[in-house]
Amino acid sequence: MNDSTLDIKAFLDKDEQKDLLRLLTAGSVDDGKSTLIGRLLFDSKKLYEDQLDALERDSKRMGNAGDHIDYALLLDGLKAEREQGITIDVAYRYFSTNNRKFIIADTPGHEQYTRNMITGGSTANLAIILVDARMGVITQTRRHTFLVSLLGIKHVVLAVNKMDLVDFSEERFNEIVDEYRKFIAPLGIPDVNCIPLSALDGDNVVEKSERTPWYEGISLLDFLETVHIDNDHNLKDFRFPVQYVLRPNLDFRGFCGKVASGIIRKGDEVMALPSGKKSHIKSIVTYDGELDYAFPPQSVTLTLEDEIDVSRGEMLVHPDNLPVMDRNFETMLVWMDEEPMDINKSFFIKQTTNISRTRIDSIKYKVDVNTMEHLSIDNGKLSKETLPMQLNQIARVVLTTAKELFFDPYQKNKATGSFILIDPITNNTSAVGMIIDRVEDKDMHLAEDLPMLNLPKLGIAPEHYEAIEKAVKELERQGVAVRIERSTSL
């Protein structure tokens, strides 16, 4: 093995050990999201020569930056995006510096692409919200910030872009920051940093700019390299959704999955849900050998001291720290399907590795993502006709599942507090949800709101009532609820 091979191996080994930061960019149309990411890649020397040649050539042919290089072309990959100068799909880019690896999701700014932003931000640790220094905090800024808070992202950078167009005014920057901090205060985002920059010229993107002597902070890249995200993982509540039962021979039985949260050690006592049976961890197995302990988001195989029955969709936890186990819960739901919601329809719910039938019991209110206003039938802002959710709408709803799920509130545990709804006919992902908590009885679906089977009116004889009631109970287990009337109403 020659020296060059060793150098490459050492480089790859070092790169593998680096911390990974997932981030998204969001902002209004033409705020400069794609330009900012392109500038990060360009100034951090993360482009190959053929990419640079193509960028210069495309900038002259279809760029929107005048005589400058149009860095946005590095991200706007679809033909429609390049022609319109906008972002439609979520564009992912990977790069690394000497200190950290990054995966960047460039998300669309248009309201009709809210579902794309939810998709891009679902795994993000940090969000960069861009505003145009000339326009300040606008409706889209508020909408994107609300979505970021909904996704539980704990670190936000307000990037005040195009400072060159306001002569790098400290007064203008402070006006925007003050307005934004007033808006964001009730949303409970713990870490908010504000940086003045010019993505086109590179001010405060990779290096501190001499044109903002009044700004005492660090550049955007310096902040991204140093922001502390280790505490974002829930290391307290051990949750291990079982993905697969591994039995290569009669002497080995292991439970494969990803540690969703918490820390598990050899010898720890664990409980299997829903059975409640207990055992101790015999070994923690990986491809590279056994471990003494595991933590999120490691994928491992756990073996137990005792032979207990555990299947896919079930969960291993510490007996003294249990998740919520319930069939009814409240959630913030984002509708992702072009087909409007059918409230009477039954869906599949996929939460961790678990799949069940579910129904929508009630919609408490919808959220106007531009004004944060709650719209409901009670306050007169919705009618029964406008209550069902449409594409990109967000609402607080109550769900009932056919079997118990094991979950935590989303703000406490993203992995066990999130789910998707699947249309059983089309297999489309109809919605994504963030669980708030188990539901109170008073918030459950009222009996008079359910469809009714009036057995005498349907001409059904009393001797068949018991069989029908059994069938109705089975329907309820599958997420479909109806009520039965035994007597004819006068």
From TrEMBL:
Residue span, Tr-type G domain: 18-233
Organism from which the protein derives: Bacteroides uniformis
SUPFAM superfamilies noted in UniProt: EF-Tu/eEF-1alpha/eIF2-gamma C-terminal domain (SSF50465), P-loop containing nucleoside triphosphate hydrolases (SSF52540), Translation proteins (SSF50447)
Keyword vocabulary terms for this entry: ATP-binding, GTP-binding, Nucleotide-binding, Nucleotidyltransferase, Transferase
GO BP annotations listed: hydrogen sulfide biosynthetic process; sulfate assimilation
Record bears the keyword NAD: no
Molecular functions (GO terms): ATP binding; GTP binding; GTPase activity; sulfate adenylyltransferase (ATP) activity
Oligomer and partners: Heterodimer composed of CysD, the smaller subunit, and CysNC.
Binding site for GTP: 27-34, 106-110, 161-164
Classification via PANTHER family: TRANSLATION FACTOR (PTHR23115)
Top-level EC class as recorded in UniProt: transferase
CDD domains: CysN_ATPS, CysN_NodQ_II, CysN_NoDQ_III
Family note: Belongs to the TRAFAC class translation factor GTPase superfamily. Classic translation factor GTPase family. CysN/NodQ subfamily.
Catalytic activity as recorded in UniProt: sulfate + ATP + H(+) = adenosine 5'-phosphosulfate + diphosphate
The protein, known as: Sulfate adenylyltransferase subunit 1
Pathway(s): Sulfur metabolism; hydrogen sulfide biosynthesis; sulfite from sulfate: step 1/3
Its EC number(s): 2.7.7.4
Function: With CysD forms the ATP sulfurylase (ATPS) that catalyzes the adenylation of sulfate producing adenosine 5'-phosphosulfate (APS) and diphosphate, the first enzymatic step in sulfur assimilation pathway. APS synthesis involves the formation of a high-energy phosphoric-sulfuric acid anhydride bond driven by GTP hydrolysis by CysN coupled to ATP hydrolysis by CysD.
Signal peptide interval: none
Key word Transferase present: yes
